[in-house]
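user:
I keep going back and forth on a fold encoding question. Separate attempts, laid side by side, tell us more than any discussion would. Would you put together a sequence-and-structure record for a protein of your own picking? Write it directly below this note and I will take it from there.

assistant:
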Amino acid sequence: MLSPELTTFIQRIPKTELHCHLEGAIQPKTLLELAARHGIALPFSDEEGARKFYEFTSLNQFLEIFALACSTLRTAADFETITADLAADAHRQGIPYREVFFTYAYHQRRSIPWEEVVGGIAAGRKIAREKFGVEMWFIADIDRTISPQDGIRTVEMANASRDAAGIIGIGLDSQEIGYPARRHKPAYDLAKQLGLRRVAHAGEDVGPGSVWDALMALDIERVDHGVRSIDDPELVKLLVERQTPLTVCPLSNVELKVYPSIAAHPVKRLLDAGVLVMLNSDDPPMFHCDVLDNYYAVADTYQLDADAITQLARNSFKATFQSETEKASSLQRFDTEAARLKAEIFH
């Protein structure tokens, strides 16, 4: 069990989050509000019912829940609402900086215009900064299952909206099995040419070969999940040499049965090997956890001390796509605040 002091330290130490899906972060209360806004019938009528509905036993059931949540997003105002909610949530957890995924394919299939999505994100991002003091940037994810041509179109749209909506990069998500990352090499080549940062989900449903594929074919700068890398010593060695960040989501991995428990999860082994790992929530309400919960679970399971927590939180700033100047400033502020908190809490 965590000590009260370490729990307080985890709560108050500055953190970033780099692996969180906008569509997967809709809280039950907001889902009910959005459904009422559009006259959508839901299979539950209150927050408790929503939380029970969010319980799933398979990936297919999870995807059904995710699709239901997306169905409530129709207008720019809806995307503004969930973006502002995510900022309030970040402020609560001591997260001053967040890079957030959104996947237009989910909305394009419902004939929602791109402009509605990014217009709402832009408005919500402004609220995040002005009301909550949270800096939010966005990564336009390509659904692995779409065509390479549609992947290129996603990059083109993201580039056109990068300033207005704070789009900092391109990502890759959805079904790994049967849809190798290299299918979208043309899109990633274009993203690199345009100066967009590049990440990809890999090494979750599929083993280390999926991570190799994303690293080599797409020239990505950060791996989302990447936990199955632990099964290949040569891959771990490469990740350490390059200091390629892994945006690990331990509680999500356990919920989706990638690993049976936090004790069986490779997060500690990856850290001990020297991989640049940080902790994230993925789809918070759907996995019944937030960033703090992931810190609590990992710290408790592996009996981490304040120094180890500090390293994890510092890693989260090192792995951002801030400019080198901004990153150096963020790390300096982090080091000062972490030292101050240690002295205050563990005196």
